[in-house]
Amino acid sequence: MSMVKVHFNGGQYEVPADSSILDAARSAGYKIPTLCYHSDLTPWAACGLCVVKVEGSGKMPRACATKVEEGTRYITHDPELNQVRRATVEMILADHPDECLSCGRNGTCELQGLAADFSIRERRFESILAELPRDDSTRAIVLDPRKCINCGRCVLVCQEKQDVWALEFLNRGDGTRMKPAGDVLLNDSPCIKCGQCSAHCPVGAIFEQDDTKRLLDVIRDPELHVAVQIAPAVRVAIGEAFGLAAGEITTGKIYAALRRLGVDSVFDTNFAADLTIMEEGTEFVDRVRTGKVLPQITSCCPSWVDYMEKYYGDMIGHFSTVKSPMMMLGALAKSYYAERKGLSPDKIVSVGIMPCTSKKYECTRDDNMCSSGYPDVDFVLTTRELARLIKQSGIDFLSLADEQADTPIGGYSGAGTIFGVTGGVMEAALRTAHFLMTGEEHSVIEFRNVRGMDGVREATVDVDGTEVRVAMAHGIANVRSILEKVRAATETGQEPPYHFIEVMACRGGCISGGGQPYGADDALRAKRIKGLYGDDERALVRCSHQNPYVKQLYADYLGEPGSHAAHELLHTEYVSRPLYGSTSDCGCVPRF
After folding, report:
1. How confident is the model over 4-19, as pLDDT tens digits?
2. Contact 384, 511 (CB under 8 A)
3. What is this structure's pTM?
4. How far apart are CA 185 and CA 406, in angstroms?
5. Domains in the chain, start-ordered, CATH in brackets?
């Protein structure tokens, strides 16, 4: 790596030659304030907070978008820069509502933090607030454009990283505003509800629809049985809201906290992740043996499903018909579990705790989400919502003793745990593929060649003498190259380049989903990923087909993977949807 010597505030430092001034200064111990910058995104110097001085020059470059130069002397902080930055924050506040106490970002807002850092206690500039309507049309993500500071993060992540183009800037100058493409409602735009816009927004202009009150309301009703499931990625992130390090496993504490909230049954989505492998793996083996359409593409991520239906309707035949683990477990809670416990399914309220905002949409995406005869999952809370609910309920999360999930749909394998990370679904499938093809155990447990953070990864794995070519993509923009290869092979009659493809909408997978605690960057993602792999390594059972509770489910209720009963409850279908104006096709009416 080529290095250069630069000076910051009088001290000399050696930094990588391709560093921005911002990154180089941080490595030297100087934190330059920003609002528009995020390490995931291309710097575009919108906010002006990161200006620095160049000694011997009148230049004041913006540090986020300017590369360091050999021998240059930079001043990152002095009274004049402090005054410039303070004035910038004050001007942003002049166009921002004074609603901190009732804002969903209170305490985590980056603008609020800067106002505190600069000791801003009163307005120096006349307040000019735009009267713009709130948009809650998606039932998953809420836009409050009055609070938008035009930093551009949401637009960049939607266009660059997700390739969705649901958000854009309209108009110019003082009339500039962030809005769904075409100036339509968000639900009528190409939005896939992934929530990466809300995860990257520094203020309260974009946030998840809050359903915490819905959960408290059903808990208070003595006639209802409230059953809650938690997703794999929740357990390595929620602790951050209580001061724990990213990646620390808090599974047992989450179970305990839910019971103290008054929940009747606590399940784990990891169980259904194991079930997904059995159904999806059986489907894959059938495709290979009978010459059906390949490659098979995973269908666990609802944002990816929505994207595929809108942008790649011609490839629906490649999609696995298996529902997501959350929807599977919801269906089982109101059928298998209800029968075993003698509960009436119409009295069961099924709730998911998910790292993902699009899970709120998935509950009602079509009639297959009501396979139990009722909405299989009634509503969803994100990791952030659960953290807020625990705090407002006075539960001392850190002091809780670990508890266990309820059986029989709570026990899981290590393979179920790694569903929360990119490559995890693929690795879990490979652990079981050999068994499904031969009836014998494979000597390999860990398939490290499918792990990593490259946006697109390819690997070849030997399964019972068959060369299986696989591909993984995370971040929707990265999937296009894979699908174009498949499409080209199909059009020319060639053998498909892959047999199995895994796609996750969010960078790193569900560990940095749109509903996770704020502040995700690659360093934090690495810690969450390490936490999930560590949980897998400590598991007594590490393959989905070895999960005794899954075996019991098939023996007692479903018969075998891929059976008629399994298809009725655990599988779905897809339709091509228009980019604009598409809505869910679910006839089930929300009950709570």
Report:
1. 999 999 999 999 999 9
2. no
3. 0.95
4. 41
5. 3-77 (3.10.20.740), 90-208 (3.30.70.20), 212-570 (3.40.50.1780)
